[in-house]
Amino acid sequence: MQKILSGNQVKSLDQKYIEGEGIHSYQLMERAAMAFCDWFVTMVPEERSVSVYCGTGNNGGDGLAIARILSQRGYSVAVGHIGDPEKGSTDFQHNLRVLPEKLPVSTWKNVTESDVLIDAVFGVGINRPLEGDYLKLIQYLNEKPALKISVDMPSGLPSDGPLEGEVFRADYTVSFQFPKLSLLAPEHAAYAGKLIVRSIGIGRSYFDSFESNRFFFSGENLIRYHKKFLPSSHKGDFGRVVLAGGSYGKMGSIGLSTRAALRTGSGLVFCHIPACGVEIIQGSIPEAMVLPPGGEHEVGDRMDTEGIDAIGIGPGLGKGENAAKLVYQVLSHYAGPTVLDADAINILGDNPAWLNSLHANAVLTPHLKEFERLTGIAGKNHFHRMDLARDFARKYSCTLVLKGAFTLISFPDGQQVFNNSGSLHMATGGSGDVLTGILTSFLGQGYSMKNAVLCGVFHHGHAGELAGSCRGRGTLASDILEKIPDSLLHSGIE
Protein backbone atom coordinates (compact mmCIF):
# COMPACT_ATOMS: atom_id res chain seq x y z
CA MET A 1 0.00 0.00 0.00
CA GLN A 2 1.14 3.51 -0.76
CA LYS A 3 1.03 6.10 2.03
CA ILE A 4 -0.82 9.32 1.12
CA LEU A 5 0.92 12.51 2.25
CA SER A 6 -0.43 16.03 2.49
CA GLY A 7 0.50 18.66 -0.05
CA ASN A 8 2.68 20.36 2.57
CA GLN A 9 4.66 17.15 3.03
CA VAL A 10 5.41 16.63 -0.67
CA LYS A 11 8.22 19.18 -0.87
CA SER A 12 9.84 17.68 2.24
CA LEU A 13 9.55 14.18 0.77
CA ASP A 14 11.18 15.28 -2.48
CA GLN A 15 14.01 17.00 -0.59
CA LYS A 16 14.55 13.98 1.65
CA TYR A 17 14.79 11.73 -1.39
CA ILE A 18 17.09 14.08 -3.30
CA GLU A 19 19.49 14.27 -0.36
CA GLY A 20 19.27 10.55 0.36
CA GLU A 21 20.00 9.54 -3.23
CA GLY A 22 22.55 12.26 -3.93
CA ILE A 23 20.79 13.59 -7.03
CA HIS A 24 19.78 17.05 -8.24
CA SER A 25 16.19 18.21 -7.94
CA TYR A 26 15.92 18.66 -11.70
CA GLN A 27 16.77 14.97 -12.12
CA LEU A 28 13.73 14.02 -10.05
CA MET A 29 11.69 16.43 -12.16
CA GLU A 30 13.02 14.67 -15.28
CA ARG A 31 11.78 11.35 -13.89
CA ALA A 32 8.32 12.81 -13.35
CA ALA A 33 8.24 14.20 -16.87
CA MET A 34 9.42 10.90 -18.31
CA ALA A 35 6.77 8.97 -16.37
CA PHE A 36 4.10 11.35 -17.69
CA CYS A 37 5.32 11.04 -21.27
CA ASP A 38 5.59 7.24 -21.13
CA TRP A 39 1.88 7.18 -20.24
CA PHE A 40 0.98 9.95 -22.71
CA VAL A 41 2.36 8.19 -25.78
CA THR A 42 0.14 5.16 -25.05
CA MET A 43 -2.95 7.37 -25.05
CA VAL A 44 -2.41 10.10 -27.64
CA PRO A 45 -1.45 9.48 -31.31
CA GLU A 46 1.67 11.28 -32.53
CA GLU A 47 -0.25 13.24 -35.18
CA ARG A 48 -2.23 15.17 -32.56
CA SER A 49 -0.89 18.63 -31.70
CA VAL A 50 -0.10 19.51 -28.09
CA SER A 51 0.01 22.75 -26.10
CA VAL A 52 1.59 22.80 -22.65
CA TYR A 53 0.58 25.66 -20.33
CA CYS A 54 3.16 26.30 -17.61
CA GLY A 55 3.32 28.34 -14.47
CA THR A 56 6.73 29.40 -13.21
CA GLY A 57 6.94 27.05 -10.22
CA ASN A 58 8.00 23.42 -10.15
CA ASN A 59 4.74 22.26 -11.74
CA GLY A 60 5.61 24.54 -14.62
CA GLY A 61 9.09 23.02 -14.64
CA ASP A 62 7.45 19.61 -15.03
CA GLY A 63 5.48 21.03 -17.94
CA LEU A 64 8.58 22.36 -19.70
CA ALA A 65 10.33 19.00 -19.36
CA ILE A 66 7.22 17.25 -20.69
CA ALA A 67 7.10 19.61 -23.68
CA ARG A 68 10.75 18.90 -24.48
CA ILE A 69 10.38 15.11 -24.25
CA LEU A 70 7.17 15.01 -26.30
CA SER A 71 8.81 17.19 -28.95
CA GLN A 72 11.75 14.78 -29.09
CA ARG A 73 9.29 11.92 -29.52
CA GLY A 74 7.79 13.47 -32.63
CA TYR A 75 4.80 15.46 -31.36
CA SER A 76 4.06 18.97 -32.54
CA VAL A 77 4.32 20.90 -29.27
CA ALA A 78 3.89 24.53 -28.25
CA VAL A 79 4.53 26.05 -24.82
CA GLY A 80 2.56 28.86 -23.24
CA HIS A 81 3.73 30.35 -19.95
CA ILE A 82 2.08 32.60 -17.39
CA GLY A 83 4.00 34.72 -14.92
CA ASP A 84 7.53 36.11 -15.08
CA PRO A 85 10.00 33.38 -16.17
CA GLU A 86 12.91 35.28 -14.63
CA LYS A 87 11.25 34.88 -11.23
CA GLY A 88 10.54 31.18 -11.75
CA SER A 89 11.84 28.38 -9.57
CA THR A 90 15.39 27.11 -10.11
CA ASP A 91 14.18 23.93 -11.81
CA PHE A 92 11.73 25.86 -13.98
CA GLN A 93 14.57 28.05 -15.21
CA HIS A 94 16.80 25.02 -15.81
CA ASN A 95 14.15 23.35 -17.99
CA LEU A 96 13.48 26.63 -19.81
CA ARG A 97 17.19 26.86 -20.75
CA VAL A 98 17.34 23.32 -22.14
CA LEU A 99 14.27 23.59 -24.36
CA PRO A 100 15.07 22.94 -28.06
CA GLU A 101 15.29 26.11 -30.15
CA LYS A 102 12.66 24.76 -32.56
CA LEU A 103 10.07 24.43 -29.77
CA PRO A 104 7.83 27.54 -29.82
CA VAL A 105 7.48 29.32 -26.48
CA SER A 106 5.23 32.33 -25.89
CA THR A 107 2.90 33.87 -23.36
CA TRP A 108 -0.29 31.87 -22.92
CA LYS A 109 -2.38 34.37 -24.87
CA ASN A 110 -0.36 33.75 -28.04
CA VAL A 111 -0.39 29.94 -28.15
CA THR A 112 -2.10 28.46 -31.20
CA GLU A 113 -4.98 26.07 -30.55
CA SER A 114 -4.10 22.38 -30.27
CA ASP A 115 -5.79 19.00 -30.05
CA VAL A 116 -4.42 18.36 -26.56
CA LEU A 117 -4.00 20.83 -23.67
CA ILE A 118 -1.61 19.97 -20.84
CA ASP A 119 -2.13 21.90 -17.62
CA ALA A 120 1.11 22.51 -15.69
CA VAL A 121 0.25 25.84 -14.11
CA PHE A 122 -0.17 24.98 -10.42
CA GLY A 123 0.61 21.81 -8.47
CA VAL A 124 0.16 20.91 -4.81
CA GLY A 125 1.22 24.30 -3.49
CA ILE A 126 -1.93 26.30 -4.23
CA ASN A 127 -3.91 27.30 -1.14
CA ARG A 128 -6.26 30.03 -2.38
CA PRO A 129 -8.75 30.51 -5.22
CA LEU A 130 -7.43 31.52 -8.62
CA GLU A 131 -7.56 35.20 -9.52
CA GLY A 132 -6.31 37.70 -12.08
CA ASP A 133 -4.64 36.36 -15.23
CA TYR A 134 -4.42 32.87 -13.73
CA LEU A 135 -8.20 32.76 -13.41
CA LYS A 136 -8.58 34.07 -16.96
CA LEU A 137 -6.22 31.40 -18.28
CA ILE A 138 -8.05 28.51 -16.64
CA GLN A 139 -11.44 29.85 -17.74
CA TYR A 140 -10.06 30.17 -21.28
CA LEU A 141 -8.73 26.59 -21.27
CA ASN A 142 -11.93 25.16 -19.83
CA GLU A 143 -13.88 26.54 -22.79
CA LYS A 144 -11.70 24.68 -25.31
CA PRO A 145 -13.02 21.40 -26.78
CA ALA A 146 -9.56 19.76 -26.69
CA LEU A 147 -8.46 16.72 -24.68
CA LYS A 148 -7.28 18.10 -21.33
CA ILE A 149 -4.63 16.58 -19.08
CA SER A 150 -3.31 17.89 -15.75
CA VAL A 151 0.18 17.34 -14.40
CA ASP A 152 -0.04 16.08 -10.78
CA MET A 153 -3.04 18.28 -9.88
CA PRO A 154 -5.67 20.24 -11.83
CA SER A 155 -4.69 23.88 -11.44
CA GLY A 156 -6.84 25.61 -8.83
CA LEU A 157 -7.63 22.44 -6.87
CA PRO A 158 -6.15 22.37 -3.35
CA SER A 159 -4.40 19.10 -2.56
CA ASP A 160 -5.99 18.42 0.84
CA GLY A 161 -9.37 20.15 0.99
CA PRO A 162 -12.54 21.18 -0.83
CA LEU A 163 -12.25 23.40 -3.85
CA GLU A 164 -13.08 27.09 -4.01
CA GLY A 165 -13.56 28.98 -7.24
CA GLU A 166 -12.56 27.97 -10.75
CA VAL A 167 -10.54 24.79 -11.41
CA PHE A 168 -9.07 23.33 -14.59
CA ARG A 169 -11.40 20.58 -15.83
CA ALA A 170 -9.14 17.69 -16.79
CA ASP A 171 -10.07 14.55 -18.66
CA TYR A 172 -7.04 12.90 -17.04
CA THR A 173 -4.84 13.78 -14.09
CA VAL A 174 -1.42 12.13 -13.93
CA SER A 175 -0.33 12.22 -10.29
CA PHE A 176 3.21 11.33 -9.29
CA GLN A 177 4.10 8.61 -6.77
CA PHE A 178 0.76 8.76 -4.91
CA PRO A 179 -2.61 10.44 -5.42
CA LYS A 180 -3.12 13.66 -3.55
CA LEU A 181 -6.08 13.38 -1.18
CA SER A 182 -8.23 15.88 -3.03
CA LEU A 183 -8.15 13.72 -6.18
CA LEU A 184 -10.02 10.96 -4.33
CA ALA A 185 -13.06 13.06 -3.39
CA PRO A 186 -16.09 12.24 -5.56
CA GLU A 187 -17.13 15.89 -5.76
CA HIS A 188 -13.80 16.62 -7.47
CA ALA A 189 -14.17 13.95 -10.14
CA ALA A 190 -15.48 16.51 -12.64
CA TYR A 191 -12.13 18.34 -12.35
CA ALA A 192 -9.67 15.46 -11.95
CA GLY A 193 -11.16 13.24 -14.65
CA LYS A 194 -9.63 9.76 -14.72
CA LEU A 195 -6.84 9.46 -12.17
CA ILE A 196 -3.52 8.00 -13.32
CA VAL A 197 -0.79 7.39 -10.72
CA ARG A 198 2.79 6.93 -11.91
CA SER A 199 5.82 6.11 -9.78
CA ILE A 200 8.89 8.34 -9.95
CA GLY A 201 11.04 5.89 -8.00
CA ILE A 202 10.74 7.18 -4.42
CA GLY A 203 11.06 4.08 -2.24
CA ARG A 204 8.65 3.32 0.59
CA SER A 205 11.37 3.84 3.21
CA TYR A 206 11.40 7.59 2.43
CA PHE A 207 7.75 7.79 3.52
CA ASP A 208 8.37 6.23 6.95
CA SER A 209 9.22 9.46 8.74
CA PHE A 210 6.04 11.18 7.50
CA GLU A 211 2.93 10.78 9.62
CA SER A 212 -0.21 9.64 7.81
CA ASN A 213 -2.88 7.04 8.47
CA ARG A 214 -4.27 7.18 4.92
CA PHE A 215 -3.16 4.79 2.20
CA PHE A 216 -3.86 4.02 -1.46
CA PHE A 217 -4.20 0.36 -2.45
CA SER A 218 -3.87 -0.78 -6.06
CA GLY A 219 -3.63 -4.51 -5.37
CA GLU A 220 0.17 -4.57 -5.12
CA ASN A 221 1.44 -7.82 -3.52
CA LEU A 222 -2.20 -8.88 -3.21
CA ILE A 223 -1.32 -12.56 -2.89
CA ARG A 224 0.32 -11.80 0.47
CA TYR A 225 -3.07 -10.86 1.91
CA HIS A 226 -4.69 -14.10 0.78
CA LYS A 227 -4.92 -17.22 2.91
CA LYS A 228 -3.21 -20.35 1.57
CA PHE A 229 -4.98 -23.71 1.67
CA LEU A 230 -3.43 -27.16 1.66
CA PRO A 231 -4.04 -29.58 -1.24
CA SER A 232 -5.89 -31.80 1.24
CA SER A 233 -8.39 -29.06 2.19
CA HIS A 234 -12.08 -30.01 2.13
CA LYS A 235 -15.23 -27.92 1.88
CA GLY A 236 -15.38 -27.41 5.63
CA ASP A 237 -11.99 -25.70 5.50
CA PHE A 238 -13.39 -23.12 3.09
CA GLY A 239 -16.01 -21.95 5.54
CA ARG A 240 -19.66 -22.34 6.45
CA VAL A 241 -21.42 -19.01 5.90
CA VAL A 242 -24.97 -17.70 6.10
CA LEU A 243 -26.41 -14.98 3.88
CA ALA A 244 -29.50 -13.53 5.52
CA GLY A 245 -31.94 -11.30 3.67
CA GLY A 246 -34.51 -11.19 0.93
CA SER A 247 -38.17 -10.31 1.15
CA TYR A 248 -41.16 -10.48 -1.16
CA GLY A 249 -40.11 -8.91 -4.47
CA LYS A 250 -36.48 -8.54 -3.37
CA MET A 251 -35.05 -12.03 -3.57
CA GLY A 252 -32.60 -11.04 -6.28
CA SER A 253 -30.40 -9.20 -3.78
CA ILE A 254 -29.76 -12.17 -1.53
CA GLY A 255 -29.36 -14.36 -4.60
CA LEU A 256 -26.52 -12.17 -5.85
CA SER A 257 -24.80 -12.24 -2.45
CA THR A 258 -25.14 -16.01 -2.29
CA ARG A 259 -23.70 -16.60 -5.75
CA ALA A 260 -20.87 -14.16 -5.03
CA ALA A 261 -19.94 -16.07 -1.86
CA LEU A 262 -19.88 -19.32 -3.83
CA ARG A 263 -17.82 -17.80 -6.64
CA THR A 264 -15.34 -16.47 -4.05
CA GLY A 265 -14.75 -19.99 -2.79
CA SER A 266 -17.00 -20.63 0.22
CA GLY A 267 -17.28 -24.31 1.04
CA LEU A 268 -20.88 -24.25 2.28
CA VAL A 269 -23.37 -21.42 1.84
CA PHE A 270 -26.68 -21.29 3.68
CA CYS A 271 -29.49 -18.82 3.03
CA HIS A 272 -31.76 -17.46 5.73
CA ILE A 273 -34.69 -16.21 3.67
CA PRO A 274 -38.50 -15.98 3.80
CA ALA A 275 -40.65 -18.86 2.58
CA CYS A 276 -41.61 -16.94 -0.57
CA GLY A 277 -38.02 -17.15 -1.75
CA VAL A 278 -37.23 -20.82 -1.12
CA GLU A 279 -38.15 -22.04 -4.59
CA ILE A 280 -36.40 -19.06 -6.17
CA ILE A 281 -33.08 -19.74 -4.42
CA GLN A 282 -33.30 -23.55 -4.65
CA GLY A 283 -34.14 -23.39 -8.34
CA SER A 284 -31.60 -20.75 -9.39
CA ILE A 285 -28.65 -21.60 -7.10
CA PRO A 286 -28.52 -25.39 -6.61
CA GLU A 287 -25.21 -25.13 -4.75
CA ALA A 288 -26.81 -23.15 -1.91
CA MET A 289 -28.79 -24.54 1.01
CA VAL A 290 -31.80 -22.90 2.63
CA LEU A 291 -32.27 -22.73 6.37
CA PRO A 292 -35.82 -23.32 7.64
CA PRO A 293 -37.75 -20.12 6.81
CA GLY A 294 -39.49 -18.28 9.62
CA GLY A 295 -41.91 -16.06 7.68
CA GLU A 296 -43.80 -16.10 4.40
CA HIS A 297 -42.83 -12.69 3.03
CA GLU A 298 -39.91 -11.66 5.28
CA VAL A 299 -37.10 -13.45 7.07
CA GLY A 300 -37.60 -15.17 10.37
CA ASP A 301 -36.62 -13.14 13.39
CA ARG A 302 -34.10 -15.71 14.64
CA MET A 303 -31.63 -18.17 13.16
CA ASP A 304 -29.29 -20.85 14.46
CA THR A 305 -25.70 -19.63 14.24
CA GLU A 306 -23.98 -22.65 15.76
CA GLY A 307 -21.06 -23.86 13.64
CA ILE A 308 -21.28 -20.84 11.31
CA ASP A 309 -17.99 -19.15 10.37
CA ALA A 310 -19.41 -15.85 9.07
CA ILE A 311 -22.74 -14.11 8.48
CA GLY A 312 -23.71 -11.56 5.85
CA ILE A 313 -26.99 -9.80 6.56
CA GLY A 314 -28.99 -7.08 4.84
CA PRO A 315 -29.45 -7.52 1.06
CA GLY A 316 -33.16 -7.30 0.25
CA LEU A 317 -33.94 -7.69 3.95
CA GLY A 318 -36.54 -4.96 4.29
CA LYS A 319 -37.19 -3.07 7.51
CA GLY A 320 -40.08 -5.04 8.94
CA GLU A 321 -40.37 -6.16 12.55
CA ASN A 322 -38.84 -9.59 11.91
CA ALA A 323 -35.92 -8.03 10.02
CA ALA A 324 -35.17 -5.67 12.91
CA LYS A 325 -35.35 -8.52 15.44
CA LEU A 326 -32.96 -10.60 13.33
CA VAL A 327 -30.38 -7.79 13.13
CA TYR A 328 -30.61 -7.37 16.90
CA GLN A 329 -30.22 -11.12 17.47
CA VAL A 330 -27.17 -11.38 15.24
CA LEU A 331 -25.47 -8.40 16.89
CA SER A 332 -26.37 -9.52 20.42
CA HIS A 333 -25.69 -13.26 20.20
CA TYR A 334 -23.16 -13.82 17.43
CA ALA A 335 -19.58 -12.65 18.01
CA GLY A 336 -18.15 -14.11 14.81
CA PRO A 337 -17.37 -12.27 11.56
CA THR A 338 -20.44 -10.34 10.45
CA VAL A 339 -21.05 -8.23 7.34
CA LEU A 340 -23.89 -5.71 7.63
CA ASP A 341 -25.19 -4.15 4.44
CA ALA A 342 -28.23 -2.41 2.96
CA ASP A 343 -31.31 -2.68 5.18
CA ALA A 344 -29.28 -4.06 8.10
CA ILE A 345 -27.47 -0.70 8.10
CA ASN A 346 -30.73 1.23 7.73
CA ILE A 347 -32.15 -0.68 10.71
CA LEU A 348 -29.10 0.29 12.76
CA GLY A 349 -29.67 3.89 11.73
CA ASP A 350 -33.22 3.64 13.12
CA ASN A 351 -31.93 2.06 16.35
CA PRO A 352 -28.73 3.94 17.23
CA ALA A 353 -28.50 2.31 20.67
CA TRP A 354 -27.73 -0.98 18.92
CA LEU A 355 -24.49 0.50 17.57
CA ASN A 356 -22.93 -0.29 20.94
CA SER A 357 -23.29 -3.99 20.06
CA LEU A 358 -20.86 -3.64 17.15
CA HIS A 359 -17.51 -5.36 17.65
CA ALA A 360 -14.12 -6.01 16.06
CA ASN A 361 -15.53 -8.82 13.89
CA ALA A 362 -18.20 -6.58 12.35
CA VAL A 363 -17.86 -4.81 9.00
CA LEU A 364 -20.45 -2.36 7.67
CA THR A 365 -20.65 -1.56 3.93
CA PRO A 366 -22.79 1.57 3.45
CA HIS A 367 -22.99 3.73 0.38
CA LEU A 368 -23.05 7.49 0.97
CA LYS A 369 -26.78 7.79 1.73
CA GLU A 370 -26.77 4.75 4.02
CA PHE A 371 -23.80 6.24 5.84
CA GLU A 372 -25.74 9.45 6.44
CA ARG A 373 -28.66 7.40 7.84
CA LEU A 374 -26.25 5.42 10.01
CA THR A 375 -24.53 8.44 11.55
CA GLY A 376 -27.46 10.85 11.38
CA ILE A 377 -25.07 13.39 9.85
CA ALA A 378 -25.09 14.67 6.30
CA GLY A 379 -21.40 15.12 5.51
CA LYS A 380 -20.51 18.63 4.35
CA ASN A 381 -18.11 17.14 1.78
CA HIS A 382 -16.05 14.00 1.34
CA PHE A 383 -13.27 15.30 3.57
CA HIS A 384 -15.83 15.59 6.36
CA ARG A 385 -17.12 12.08 5.57
CA MET A 386 -13.56 10.72 5.72
CA ASP A 387 -13.24 12.00 9.27
CA LEU A 388 -16.71 10.77 10.22
CA ALA A 389 -15.92 7.28 8.89
CA ARG A 390 -12.61 7.17 10.77
CA ASP A 391 -14.24 8.30 14.00
CA PHE A 392 -17.14 5.82 13.61
CA ALA A 393 -14.80 2.85 13.14
CA ARG A 394 -12.74 3.91 16.14
CA LYS A 395 -15.72 4.56 18.40
CA TYR A 396 -17.46 1.26 17.72
CA SER A 397 -14.31 -0.85 17.18
CA CYS A 398 -15.58 -2.08 13.81
CA THR A 399 -14.55 -1.83 10.16
CA LEU A 400 -16.46 0.50 7.85
CA VAL A 401 -16.41 0.28 4.05
CA LEU A 402 -17.76 3.50 2.52
CA LYS A 403 -18.64 2.44 -1.02
CA GLY A 404 -18.16 4.53 -4.14
CA ALA A 405 -15.37 5.57 -6.47
CA PHE A 406 -12.13 4.90 -4.53
CA THR A 407 -14.06 3.03 -1.83
CA LEU A 408 -12.80 4.14 1.58
CA ILE A 409 -12.02 1.44 4.16
CA SER A 410 -11.77 2.63 7.78
CA PHE A 411 -10.29 0.29 10.38
CA PRO A 412 -10.73 0.62 14.16
CA ASP A 413 -7.02 1.43 14.60
CA GLY A 414 -7.54 4.69 12.67
CA GLN A 415 -5.99 3.49 9.40
CA GLN A 416 -7.89 4.38 6.25
CA VAL A 417 -7.35 2.80 2.84
CA PHE A 418 -8.63 4.06 -0.50
CA ASN A 419 -9.21 1.23 -2.97
CA ASN A 420 -8.03 1.74 -6.55
CA SER A 421 -10.06 -0.84 -8.44
CA GLY A 422 -13.47 -0.56 -10.08
CA SER A 423 -15.13 1.45 -12.82
CA LEU A 424 -18.21 3.53 -13.50
CA HIS A 425 -19.87 0.47 -15.03
CA MET A 426 -20.32 -0.91 -11.50
CA ALA A 427 -22.91 1.79 -10.78
CA THR A 428 -25.78 -0.66 -11.16
CA GLY A 429 -28.30 -2.24 -8.81
CA GLY A 430 -26.97 -5.29 -6.99
CA SER A 431 -23.28 -4.40 -7.18
CA GLY A 432 -23.15 -3.87 -3.42
CA ASP A 433 -24.88 -7.21 -2.80
CA VAL A 434 -22.03 -8.88 -4.66
CA LEU A 435 -19.53 -7.21 -2.32
CA THR A 436 -21.46 -8.52 0.71
CA GLY A 437 -21.11 -12.06 -0.59
CA ILE A 438 -17.39 -11.66 -1.33
CA LEU A 439 -16.59 -10.24 2.12
CA THR A 440 -18.68 -12.87 3.91
CA SER A 441 -16.90 -15.60 1.97
CA PHE A 442 -13.37 -14.43 2.78
CA LEU A 443 -14.25 -13.98 6.45
CA GLY A 444 -15.80 -17.44 6.53
CA GLN A 445 -12.62 -18.87 5.01
CA GLY A 446 -10.70 -17.65 8.05
CA TYR A 447 -9.09 -14.47 6.71
CA SER A 448 -8.29 -11.77 9.24
CA MET A 449 -10.70 -8.85 9.13
CA LYS A 450 -8.12 -6.53 7.56
CA ASN A 451 -7.04 -9.03 4.90
CA ALA A 452 -10.61 -10.07 4.10
CA VAL A 453 -11.71 -6.48 3.55
CA LEU A 454 -8.65 -5.44 1.53
CA CYS A 455 -8.93 -8.51 -0.71
CA GLY A 456 -12.71 -8.37 -0.92
CA VAL A 457 -12.99 -4.73 -1.88
CA PHE A 458 -10.16 -4.97 -4.38
CA HIS A 459 -11.44 -8.13 -6.10
CA HIS A 460 -14.97 -6.70 -6.21
CA GLY A 461 -13.66 -3.65 -8.05
CA HIS A 462 -11.34 -5.66 -10.29
CA ALA A 463 -14.14 -8.07 -11.23
CA GLY A 464 -16.18 -4.98 -12.07
CA GLU A 465 -13.40 -3.71 -14.33
CA LEU A 466 -13.22 -7.07 -16.11
CA ALA A 467 -16.99 -7.19 -16.55
CA GLY A 468 -17.12 -3.58 -17.70
CA SER A 469 -14.42 -4.18 -20.31
CA CYS A 470 -16.73 -6.76 -21.89
CA ARG A 471 -20.16 -5.23 -21.30
CA GLY A 472 -19.58 -1.49 -20.95
CA ARG A 473 -22.71 0.36 -19.89
CA GLY A 474 -24.66 -2.89 -20.14
CA THR A 475 -22.78 -4.40 -17.18
CA LEU A 476 -25.01 -6.14 -14.62
CA ALA A 477 -24.22 -7.13 -11.06
CA SER A 478 -24.42 -10.76 -12.15
CA ASP A 479 -21.70 -10.02 -14.73
CA ILE A 480 -19.48 -8.76 -11.91
CA LEU A 481 -19.87 -11.87 -9.78
CA GLU A 482 -19.15 -14.14 -12.74
CA LYS A 483 -15.79 -12.37 -13.12
CA ILE A 484 -14.72 -13.02 -9.51
CA PRO A 485 -12.84 -16.24 -10.42
CA ASP A 486 -11.00 -14.39 -13.20
CA SER A 487 -9.93 -11.70 -10.74
CA LEU A 488 -8.66 -14.31 -8.31
CA LEU A 489 -6.75 -16.15 -11.03
CA HIS A 490 -5.28 -12.84 -12.27
CA SER A 491 -3.77 -12.36 -8.81
CA GLY A 492 -2.36 -15.88 -8.71
CA ILE A 493 -5.00 -17.25 -6.33
CA GLU A 494 -5.75 -20.88 -7.14
TrEMBL record:
Catalysed reaction equations from the record: (6S)-NADPHX + ADP = AMP + phosphate + NADPH + H(+); (6S)-NADHX + ADP = AMP + phosphate + NADH + H(+); (6R)-NADHX = (6S)-NADHX; (6R)-NADPHX = (6S)-NADPHX
Keyword annotations of the record: ATP-binding, Isomerase, Lyase, Metal-binding, Multifunctional enzyme, NAD, NADP, Nucleotide-binding, Potassium
Occurrences of domain YjeF C-terminal (ranges): 218-491
Binding residue positions for (6S)-NADPHX: 58-62, 123-129, 134, 152, 316, 367, 433
EC number per UniProt: 4.2.1.136, 5.1.99.6
Pfam families in alphabetical order: Carb_kinase, YjeF_N
Listed Gene3D superfamilies: 3.40.1190.20, YjeF N-terminal domain
Binding of AMP, residues: 403-407, 432
Co-factor(s): K(+); Mg(2+)
Cofactor binding note from Swiss-Prot or TrEMBL: Binds 1 potassium ion per subunit.
Domain YjeF N-terminal: 10-208
Positions contributing to K(+) binding: 59, 119, 155
InterPro entries, alphabetized: Carbohydrate_kinase_pred_CS, CARKD, Nnr, Ribokinase-like, YjeF_N_dom, YjeF_N_dom_sf
Domain of life: Bacteria
Subunit comment: Homotetramer.
Known role: Catalyzes the dehydration of the S-form of NAD(P)HX at the expense of ADP, which is converted to AMP. Together with NAD(P)HX epimerase, which catalyzes the epimerization of the S- and R-forms, the enzyme allows the repair of both epimers of NAD(P)HX, a damaged form of NAD(P)H that is a result of enzymatic or heat-dependent hydration. Catalyzes the epimerization of the S- and R-forms of NAD(P)HX, a damaged form of NAD(P)H that is a result of enzymatic or heat-dependent hydration. This is a prerequisite for the S-specific NAD(P)H-hydrate dehydratase to allow the repair of both epimers of NAD(P)HX.
Similarity comment: family membership: In the N-terminal section; belongs to the NnrE/AIBP family. Belongs to the NnrD/CARKD family.
NCBIfam families, per database record: yjeF_cterm, yjeF_nterm
HAMAP family noted in UniProt: NADHX_dehydratase (MF_01965), NADHX_epimerase (MF_01966)
Protein name: Bifunctional NAD(P)H-hydrate repair enzyme
Organism expressing this protein natively: Cyclobacterium jeungdonense
Gene field: nnrE
